[in-house]
Structures are given as structure tokens and as C-alpha cells.
Amino acid sequence: RTATYFFIFLNLSLALFEEPAVYPLPFLATSVLEVLCLLVFLGRLTHFAKVTLHNVFWKDTKNICIMVAILLSLTDLAIYGVLRLYDVRSIRWSRIVRPIFLINFAESRQIRRAFRSIRNTLPEITYVFLLFMFSLLMFSLMALKLFGERNLQTAEGLPYFRNYLEIVFDLYVLVTTANSPDVMMPAFDFSSWYTLFFIAFVIINTYIFMSLFLAVVYNNYKKHLKVMPGWACD
């Protein structure tokens, strides 16, 4: 189990050293390490197939996912290496499949349980998220109507709240209060009454919707985290 986890995290950590990376290593070094990890995963899977009934092994989707991830990683590595020989820049798209090894090995039952709880929670929080997005879009439309025709400018001299998509992004950031109070200062300088718009936005979206969103996520995740039938044989 320790060896399996070691090579899983080694495989995941290669993203720190592959281009583009903060600490780049030669392609040959990272590719050799990745092939070594994939060979270990393949050997681990082969060993598991030897001690498992044939029909049980091939009915387990975890084993299928691991084999597909190994195949995709090797294919991507080969294509990337050939393109480098011809000085063609490309992207290692197989990086996104590396967490599959962390989730689908038999030793990762607790990680799988947490992942499954998150997956089961997502559909149940969709309604709250859609309601929040509807509120965000409506406030953005109100901001466009309130400030877009007044030729206001930011401190940097840029147009203020004249592009709808930029307004949506600015108000989305305001939900985190990361750009407060800077985002409201041009409107405040024009009229102090406009602060009521931003106060109402923060109260509804930051304090009400975020609290509601957190409560729904917590309650549903806690419900799905309980032991469910069938997990004992997972």
C-alpha cells in the first residue's frame, strides 16, 4: 500500500516539473519517471487480476478506469515525444487523468468514499447554485442600467460598468469581498445613494446565498458520507 501511494503521488507531482513548470526538468527525466509509475500501476493491476476471479475483475469499473488511464497516458506521452522531435509545441492533456489512479486503486477506499459523497452532493446543490447565478445575473443587469449610461470611469480611467460580462465578473468577485470597496467607489463618487445597490447585493448574495449554499453542501455531504449498502465490498 505504501509503495502504491508513493508512486501515485510521484506521478501527480510530475506536473510540478513538466513544461510549463516552476521547476522544469528535462523531458527525458520526467518521461522516464512517468513510464516507471505507469509500469508499477500496470504491475499492481496485473497482480490484482491474478488473485481475483476473472468475471469479477472485468466487471469492476475501477479496474477499467485504471487501464484506460494508463493507455491514455502512454499514448499522450508517445505523441508528445514525437512532436518534440519535430520542434512542435503541444500540451500534455493526459495530466487530467492522473487523479484517476488516486481514486480507483483498491487501497483508496476512503478517498473514493469522499469523492463519491461529493459527486452525490453536486446534483442536490444545483438548484441553490442556479438561484444564486440568477441573482448575480439580475444584479449585473441592474448595474448595467444604473451605471452604464452615466459615463463613469474607474481610478485607472477605464470605462465603469459598461460591459455586461465584465460586470458579472466584478460582482462575482464582490461576493468574496475581494474587490470591496474599490468596485463601488466610482458609483459612490457620483452619488452616495448608489451604495445602497452594493449593500443590497452583498446582503443578498454574500450573507444569505453563501450561508444557504454552505448549509446545503454541508448537510448533503454529511448525509452521503454515511456508510451506504454496497460500500463494504468496494
UniProtKB/TrEMBL annotation:
Top-level taxon of origin: Eukaryota
Transmembrane residue ranges: 25-43, 64-83, 125-144, 164-181, 193-218
Pfam families recorded: Ion_trans
Extent of the signal sequence: none
Residue ranges annotated for the Ion transport domain, each copy included: 5-223
Transmembrane keyword on record: yes
Membrane topology (UniProt): Multi-pass membrane protein
Alphabetical UniProt keywords: Membrane, Transmembrane, Transmembrane helix
Compartment annotation: Membrane
Gene Ontology terms, MF aspect: monoatomic ion channel activity
Protein name, per record: TPC2 protein
Organism, scientific name: Hylia prasina
Lineage: Eukaryota, Metazoa, Chordata, Craniata, Vertebrata
